[in-house]
Amino acid sequence: MSNESSEESEIETIKKVIMDYYHEGHVRSDPELYKNILHDEWKFFLFDQNNQLKIVDKAEYLSWYDPEKANINLNWMTEFYNVDVTGNNAAVKLKIECEEVGYIDYFNLMKINNKWWIVHKLSHKIK
Fold it and tell me: Where exactly are the structural domains of the chain?
């Protein structure tokens, strides 16, 4: 397999795991789904409502989700803007939104033991 087709294959794999676990985690508000894509050392960097830097770890992030309280009537959509792969590292820019909220997310991913994991997330709220 050529390097180009190998990279395309990795891009498709990354998109699939993001849709299967990150996107569906939002749809179902299910922390168990996120556990399949967020590395244990994962960190989320964002600006809070006071424009102060906030850094959230995996445990805190997972605590925000509860499938029992999920609004299953929301229509979540994910649009990939860019997926860049270099070896076992990748960067992704995407938009995820529903009727109530929307974000531009930037992910750094690493392929560890033949599996892609999000290790860092930056997010910008768009609605």
Answer: 3-125
Ordered alpha helix ranges (H), the chain: 3-17, 24-28, 31-34, 58-63
Residue 110 has pLDDT above 80, yes or no: yes
Q: Map residue 72 onto helix, strand or coil.
A: coil
- Which CATH code is given to the segment(s) 3-125? 3.10.450.50
What is the C-alpha R_g of the chain? 15
Q: Is 124 helix (H, G, I), strand (E, B) or coil?
A: strand
Tell me which residue of 58, 61, 45, 120 sits closest to 89, measured CA to CA.
120
pTM for this predicted structure: 0.93
Q: Which amino acid is at 75?
A: N
